[in-house]
Amino acid sequence: MIRFMTVELDEVQHFLAENAPYAQLPAESRALLTRSAEIRYCKRGSVILRCGEPNDLCWVIRSGAVDITDENGVLLDRREAGRSFGYSTILGENRNRYSMIAVEDSLLITITRADFLAVAEKDASFTRFFSSQSTRMRAAAEQVRNNDGSQSLRAQLGDFMTTQPATLHPTESIQSAARVMRDKNVSSLVIATDEDICGIVTDRDLRSKVVADDVDVTMPVSGIMTLNPITATTTTPAFEAMMIMAEHGIHHLPVRDTTQPHKPLVGIVSSPDIMRLLRNDPIYITADISRRSSAEELAEVFARSKDVAARFVERSARPEEVSALLSHSADAVARRLLGLAEEELGPPPVPYAFVVVGSQGRKELGFASDQDNALILSNAFKPEEHGEYFTVLANRVCQGLALAGQVLCPGDMMASNPQWRLTESEWISTFTSWITAPEPEALMFAQTFFDMRLVHGDESLYSNVRASSLDQARSARRFHAHLATVASRREPPLGFFRGFVVERGGDYAHTLDIKKGGIHAIVQMARLYALTCGADALDTRQRLNAAAGLGAVSEKGAHDLLDAFDVLNTIAFDHQATDLRVGNAPSYHVDPEQLGKMDREHVRDAFHIIKGMQQALSTKYPTRSM
């Protein structure tokens, strides 16, 4: 039974102002929606709309609950106060595809087709909210990506670099270099051939290496240049270039274009260029890590980088920018700690590579991430001769990182654990055993160590291990199935009726762990997709894009997961930045009651997308029979 009731317009408008998507509308739009509104009372068990019937109303649940069923009576969703239904027939469907049944005594607000469409024509975000789940997720993610809160920081070097930089051949004289710099009024000169960048000379080099030492200016400029200078690419973000300069104590970066390998140099950027770009933006870090000489000093700098990252969040920076800043800072601290250890212990007795794994390996470090790292040692390593050196080095680095704020890994996946200090051949054998005998513990290790990235040391050691592991994993169908099992069983905390499943007790009672069944599930799926097609990508974004390009996942599936990834990370970082500001330990546990209604809908959509992609994995791989 449905009964009409007198409408109190002010009360209806106030209610809409508290619920998505009406809360985001200007007051005049809410007034337009309610000018012809009615309130209807529906008794429990009454059918509000039947499948196949026409409908000209958008229904908003004021109180009570409504079940949505398909033509066979299968329950699809249960909607409660604040949620809407019936809008699909206004936005394009000719007839109702579902039945709506009151499961409690309910009060429903009805909005006419004409009023609904009048607002929809004025506000695209209002229309997007009522479109498909994927479209809503896409719109939310695009809002995150397109926010202009940190445009200067996300500018790429190709956007503002000096093109056609001054150059000179290495055989030219020092005097010629000085004249070119004078005539072109520049403070640096790139020394290059047609094939490659050989070095760089700055005005400081002329003062300290030529004038001060009375060097013969007819000598080749190659004698005073800095060999093999650090370079960047046209797509390097400004904030990353700024940190590279600060870490290495340099003021000029030659710029390459990876799309033009035949053209080694396309531009140059100086620290004043970046400071001019950021002069009106208070959010940048003056990373003086390379000048610090103790773990305590490094801890101070790393803490400051976290503060800066939190301000990135407050300025609506993209989640990948926040992660990149945290990851870059952690990398720099590790490199400096390794350098300090080598200065005290002496040069390493055999070549080694210090690698980071897990979230730092993917450059997806968060405020709540711990440290995960390892050592790859040369095959010339002899435990009885060299073991003590690397034990001391690893312990100093891991303890130094912990002091700096990167907490020790609770699972002991660190270079300080002898289990993760292996030779190149031992690492290759270890990956082989994980891939060919994927027991539960092996799977846990494999997932973490397939996210391996070099931070310091011998690149060939890392490259050989990485190439071997990817080659073995690509065709290991049984290994893929086990990874799919793990990825599909870590389900989002979403109940049958799209309600959130919160923690029942403990320190995180009544909260959602949006990492465990949300962000982490996406990371696991992206890793699996990349391994199956042999894509040598590390971060989740690159993995999904590469896998879609190689056919390991559909374009739509990859895009949906990326959108969900961005939305969940944005909410996580907002929460963690708030924790830091009030002095709490950051975590991925979020109280859904503290989220705005629009954010709660976005989280629901993200979880639903993840759940759908997990079901697709279960279909593709025999996960349930294992």
From TrEMBL:
UniProt source species: Corynebacterium ulcerans
PROSITE patterns: CBS (PS51371), CNMP_BINDING_3 (PS50042)
Keyword Nuclease set for record: no
Domain of life: Bacteria
Domain Cyclic nucleotide-binding: start-end pairs: 21-116
Domain CBS span(s) in chain numbering: 161-217, 225-285
Keywords annotated in UniProt: CBS domain, Repeat
UniProt-recorded name of the protein: Signal-transduction protein containing cAMP-binding and CBS domains
Pfam families on file: CBS, cNMP_binding, DUF294, DUF294_C
Alphabetical list of PANTHER family matching this protein: CBS DOMAIN AND CYCLIC NUCLEOTIDE-REGULATED NUCLEOTIDYLTRANSFERASE (PTHR48108:SF31), CBS DOMAIN-CONTAINING PROTEIN CBSX2, CHLOROPLASTIC (PTHR48108)
